[in-house]
Amino acid sequence: MVRDVAASIRFYAHLGFQFAFADADVDPKYAGVRRDHVELHFQWHAAEDFSSGDRPTYRFLVPAVDALSAEFSSSHLELDRTDVADTPWGTREFHLRDPDRNGLQFYGLL
What residues contact residue 8 under an 8 Å CB cut-off, 6+ apart? Predict the structure, then answer.
């Protein structure tokens, strides 16, 4: 769920995702981006659909957590994110939220 599909495409491009498709060239309501073996789809929703504050979180296993964190830090975006840390359950991870408050968790196994 996103409020502005074109803005989400631009945000994720700064994180290294490539444009995959959109249902329209101007003001798309559904689109996708991809990076490596992951494809994310964005679907437009009205502002009132975000009123609950309950946002989904997606978890991604990545081979190099620290390198990915450093790459995202160099994107020059103001990111709502955590530092990379080891967890008691045996992962090394960091989390961020996109502009629509969707959670993204990137982790590797210790």
Answer: 2, 31, 42, 98, 99, 100
Residues in the chain: 110
DSSP secondary structure of 42-84: EEB--GGGGTT----EEEEE-S-HHHHHHHHHTT----EEPPP
Q: Could you state, in chain order, the average pLDDT of each consecutive group of 10 residues for the chain (110 residues)?
A: 97 96 98 96 92 88 97 92 98 97 96
Answer whether 0.90 is exceeded by the pTM.
Answer: yes
Query: For residues 45 and 74, what is the distance between their CA atoms, to the nearest angstrom?
Result: 30
User: What residue spans define the domains of the chain?
Assistant: 5-109
5-109: CATH architecture: Roll (3.10)
Strand 30-35 to 18-22 pairing: antiparallel
